[in-house]
Design goal:
With 356 residues, this protein is of the alpha+beta class. The chain is built from 10 helices and 17 strands. The protein has helices at 2-19, 69-77, 95-101, 108-111, 183-193, 218-228, 235-246, 294-303, 315-318, 328-341; strands spanning 23-26, 41-44, 51-55, 60-64, 81-82, 118-124, 130-134, 159-166, 168-169, 173-180, 200-206, 209-216, 231-232, 259-263, 278-280, 285-289, 307-312. The protein is globular and about 65 Å long.
C-alpha cells in the first residue's frame, strides 16, 4: 500500500514538472497560516503514515511523513522518551509538517531546534526521484548534512517521505519558579544565569513576571530551586503554562492583530517597539502581537542581531513579505539549492519567498 502511494506521487510529480504545474504539499493543514500564500494542486500526505522503526535503547525513531504527531509522542511516552525540542502540537499536526515548518517550543533554549535532531530522511525531489540523506546514527552523516535542510523548508525543496529523529529521555523531575521582574531585569537575569550550571529548560517573561522551568535529576533541580529562590508554582499550573506556550494557546497569541516573531541575540536589550512582548528562550525569542510597521520591526530585529517573521497576519501585512529578505549571497545559495532539488519549481512555490 505504501509503495503504491509513493508511485502515485512520483507520477503526479513527473506530470506536474512536465506541465510546470504547482503542487501544494499538505499534511494536516495545521500550519497553513505560516508562510506566504498557498498555491498549487494539493498533494496530501495523510495516508502515508506509520512508525517505521523505533529503537528506544538507541534513542532513534523513524516515521513516515503523514504520521500524526500525537501518535509519535504516544509511542515515545510509553518508553519515557520525548521530542526534546517540544514542537507545537496543533490539531492535525503530522511528522512531515513538524519537520518542514522547523518550529520548536520552550525547551529549544536548552537542547536546540528540530534540525539538530534530524538524523536522516527520504525525499521525493522535483524529478520524482527518491533521495536518501543521512541515516539513523550521528556518525552516518558525511559531508554536508542535506537532511537538515528539510527542517524549515516548508516543503519547497521536496516531499519528505520519512524521517529519522533522535529523541531523549523525559526528565525525571521538573519545577517552575515565578519571579517578579521588569523586562530589562528579566533579560539581565536570564543572561547572567545562562553562564551558570543550572538545569534551566525554559524561560518566559510576560506582564512583569519571569517564569523559569528547571528539569533534570531531582537533586539538581532541588539545588537550583534553593539557589534561585522565587515562588514555586503548582506543578499542574506550571504544565498548563508551558503547554500553552508550546502549543501557542497562551493569551498572548490570541487576537486579530498581526503576530510578529523576532529571533534576536539573547543579550539584546529591550526593543523600542510600541507593544509589550512575550519573551522566551532566555531573551532570544520575542513575540509581539500588534499592528507594527514591518520595516521598523525588521530594522530593530537586525540591530538586535537577528531577524523578524510575520508569524501570523492579514493579507495586507503579508504583502511586505512574511520572512526577512535574504542577503544577496544567501539568496544565491537558496536559489541554487531550489534549482537542484526542484528544477521546475513545482513544490510549494512562493511559500518561503514570493519569487521562488
Amino acid at each position: 500500500m505504501t509503495s503504491t502511494i509513493v508511485q502515485q506521487w512520483q507520477k503526479q510529480i513527473v506530470t506536474a514538472a512536465k506541465n510546470r504545474q504547482a503542487l501544494r504539499i499538505v499534511g494536516g493543514g495545521s500550519k497553513d497560516f505560516y508562510g506566504q500564500s498557498l498555491h498549487g494542486e494539493p498533494l496530501s500526505t495523510r495516508d502515508y503514515a506509520g512508525i517505521v522503526d523505533y529503537e528506544p535503547t538507541e534513542l532513534v525513531i523513524t516515521a513516515r511523513c503523514g504520521t500524526p504527531l500525537a501518535e509519535l509522542e504516544t509511542a515515545l511516552a510509553k518508553k519515557s522518551q520525548s521530542l526534546p525540542w517540544e514542537p507545537p502540537r496543533f490539531p492535525g499536526a503530522t511528522v512531515g509538517g513538524m519537520v518542514a515548518s522547523g518550529l520548536s517550543g520552550p525547551q529549544r533554549i536548552k537542547v536546540g531546534a528540530v534540525r539538530d535532531f534530524v538524523l536522516g530522511c527520504q525525499v521525493l525531489d522535483g524529478n520524482g526521484d527518491t533521495l536518501r540523506f543521512g541515516g539513523q546514527v550521528m556518525k552516518n552523516v558525511a559531508g554536508y548534512d542535506v537532511s537538515r535542510l528539510m527542517a524549515g523548508s516548508l516543503g519547497t525543496l521536496g516531499l519528505i517521505l520519512e524521517v529519522s529523529l533522535k529523541v531523549l529521555p523525559t526528565p525525571t523531575t521538573s519545577a517552575t519558579l515565578r519571579l517578579e521582574a521588569s523586562e530589562s531585569g528579566a533579560l539581565e537575569w536570564t543572561n547572567t544565569r545562562a553562564g551558570e550550571p543550572l538545569p534551566i529548560s525554559a524561560t518566559c517573561w510576560s506582564d512583569e513576571v519571569l517564569f523559569v522551568r528547571l528539569s533534570g535529576a531531582r537533586a539538581a533541580v532541588q539545588s537550583a530551586i534553593a539557589q534561585i529562590g522565587g515562588e514555586a508554582m503548582d506543578q499542574g499550573e506550571a504544565e498548563k503554562l508551558w503547554d500553552s506556550l508550546r502549543d501557542q494557546t497562551h493569551a498572548h497569541f490570541s487576537g486579530d492583530e498581526p503576530l510578529w516573531r523576532l529571533s534576536v541575540s539573547p543579550t539584546a536589550a529591550s526593543l523600542d517597539l510600541p507593544a509589550r512582548p512575550l519573551i522566551e528562550w532566555g531573551g532570544a525569542l520575542r513575540w509581539y502581537r500588534a499592528d507594527l510597521d514591518p520595516q521598523k520591526v525588521r530594522v530593530m530585529a537586525g540591530r538586535a542581531g537577528g531577524h523578524a517573521t510575520l508569524y501570523r497576519g492579514d493579507s495586507r501585512a503579508k504583502q511586505g513579505g512574511v520572512f526577512q529578505s535574504l542577503s544577496a549571497p544567501l539568496e544565491k545559495v537558496h536559489r541554487r539549492l531550489k534549482s537542484a532539488m526542484d528544477p521546475q519549481g513545482i513544490f510549494n512555490p512562493g511559500r518561503l519567498y514570493a519569487d521562488f
